[in-house]
Design goal:
The structure is a single chain. Helices cover 36% and strands 23% of the residues. It has 4 domains: 64 residues, Winged helix-like DNA-binding domain superfamily/Winged helix DNA-binding domain (Arc Repressor Mutant, subunit A, Orthogonal Bundle); 55 residues, no CATH class; 90 residues, SH3 type barrels (Roll), CATH 2.30.30; 78 residues, 2-Layer Sandwich (Alpha-Beta Plaits), CATH 3.30.70. A 5-stranded antiparallel β-sheet has the order 6-5-4-3-7. It has 328 residues and is an alpha+beta fold. The longest helix has 20 residues. Helix 4 runs antiparallel to helix 5 and helix 9 crosses helix 10. It contains 10 helices and 11 strands. The N and C termini lie far apart (75 Å).
């Protein structure tokens, strides 16, 4: 139950008194005179201070009063929350706790605990979030998120060894880190490579263990470079250098069209809609993720243009079919 404004004021008065009288004992009578309430109310305030704020409060029979056993001060001076505010905050905290369970930024858990105390309620252990994020607790690149965020915030270059899935060679990279993005339960670093003068995407799980170093080398951040512009013509995170943006025309079956329209994977222009099919147009870079996405729709989609995408998609399907073709 949240404290009232009057109780919050008394708690602040008691806290300030105990801090001013360090190495001394504050009697109940002194606190009654300070706050102007009954002894019973003061004792309840002391209980709230100890139980809800984790104040290191002790009673000394010898000294005849209360004192702090260690340094302490109330976290927030003037905060009074309504019931609906607390409910919203509980939901937000429950969502944040999903990230602590995932292992991302473990320090967030300590922040959450402090926040719970600061707003004067304990998150009910029976309270369950009603929104769940897709998670992969076994993902190997999570440990790099925190140091990369630190480097990004300080505009410091990083160095690491990296091996892509398609390469047998391990390469060393010095990168000016700009963004970290999650996509399909994988985390990626988007940064600038000065040696190639281009922005590149790195999958965090492909960074070699113990190879990431934050350099004492600052860089000037290009404020015109945004993640939205970088990814606006691509599906997924594979941005091929100098790959052209092409006009893609797709034709969906009636059922697949319903799924697409309810959750389009990219901005599109509706060309035609009949009882037999729906045709759309979009501008995209042709990359592996686009091909996999379309292949996953099976017979629900047909590529009308361009020819290069038709060729790549049919090749993908043929190679998949060969996996199930038995020779005698």
């Amino acid at each position: 139950m949240p404290v009232s404004k009057n109780q919050l004021l008394r708690l602040r008065q008691i806290d300030e008194k105990l801090n001013r009288w360090k190495n001394q004992y504050v009697s109940i009578q002194a606190l009654v005179e300070l706050t102007g309430v009954t002894e019973r109310t003061v004792k309840e305030d002391l209980r709230v201070l100890r139980d809800d704020y984790d104040a290191p409060l002790q009673w000394s029979a010898k000294g005849g009063g209360y004192y702090y056993t260690s340094d302490f001060s109330m976290p927030i001076k003037n905060l009074a929350l309504k019931k609906e505010d607390i409910n919203k905050l509980k939901t937000a905290l429950a969502l944040l706790q999903q990230y602590t369970r995932l292992g991302i930024l473990p320090d967030v858990e300590d922040v959450i605990n402090k926040l719970e105390k600061a707003v004067k309620f304990k998150l009910d252990q029976t309270y369950q979030p009603y929104i769940y994020f897709e998670q992969n607790p076994f993902y190997q690149g999570i440990d790099y998120i925190e140091p990369l965020l630190l480097a990004i915030s300080q505009s410091k270059a990083v160095h690491f060894k990296y091996q892509s899935y398609k390469s047998r060679h391990i390469l060393s990279h010095k990168v000016e880190p700009y963004f970290i993005k999650e996509h399909n339960n994988r985390w990626y670093l988007i940064g600038y490579l000065s040696k190639t003068e281009q922005y590149t995407t790195f999958a965090l799980e492909r960074i070699k263990p113990h190879s990431l170093t934050i350099l004492e080398e600052y860089f000037y951040r290009n404020k015109t470079f945004t993640l939205d512009n970088y990814l606006k013509n691509a599906i997924g995170m594979s941005i091929l250098s100098n790959a052209p943006v092409e006009e893609i025309i797709l034709q969906f079956t009636p059922l697949q069209a319903k799924y697409f329209i309810s959750k389009p994977f990219h901005q599109y222009l509706l060309i035609e809609e009949t009882i037999n099919h729906t045709t759309v147009k979009m501008n995209l870079i042709i990359n592996y993720e686009l091909i996999r996405l379309l292949a996953g729709m099976g017979a629900g989609v047909k590529v009308i243009a361009p020819t290069s995408l038709i060729t790549q998609l049919t090749t993908y399907h043929r190679q998949a079919l060969l996996q199930y073709t038995h020779t005698t």
